[in-house]
Recover the amino acids of this structure.
């Protein structure tokens, strides 16, 4: 099980371990975003620091109907205590955890400040 907390802005937050190019682990707070169907997003400065390998370009339709093109990298994350190789979308926003990474998990959020966030394997 993966756990976290709801922050003062009522965003569900978990900590996710991300490995750099040399395998060093960095922990990062990420917002659980059920409106994001990708895997994971990071801002460009963090991607550069980790020296993640570039893989391809991606295209997405945003909530306002506009489309954007972005770079996709590859990273090893620690997901439910196990290493997992996943695509990482470059986005100049807070790091986001998307629905593709949560596939096969139940998300429970206590909708109040400091409420519990749980991801349980189904």
């Amino acid at each position: 099980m993966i756990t976290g907390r709801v922050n003062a802005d009522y965003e569900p937050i978990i900590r996710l371990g991300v490995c750099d190019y040399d395998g060093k682990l960095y922990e990062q707070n990420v917002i659980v975003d059920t409106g994001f169907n990708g895997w994971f997003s990071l801002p460009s400065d963090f991607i550069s620091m980790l020296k993640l390998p570039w893989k391809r370009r991606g295209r997405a339709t945003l909530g306002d109907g506009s489309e954007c093109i972005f770079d996709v990298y590859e990273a090893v994350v620690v997901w439910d205590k196990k290493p997992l190789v996943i695509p990482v979308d470059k986005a100049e926003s807070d790091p986001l955890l998307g629905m593709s990474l949560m596939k096969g998990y139940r998300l429970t959020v206590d909708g109040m400040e400091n409420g519990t966030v749980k991801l349980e394997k189904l």
About this structure: The longest strand covers residues 67-79. DSSP finds one helix and ten strands in the chain.
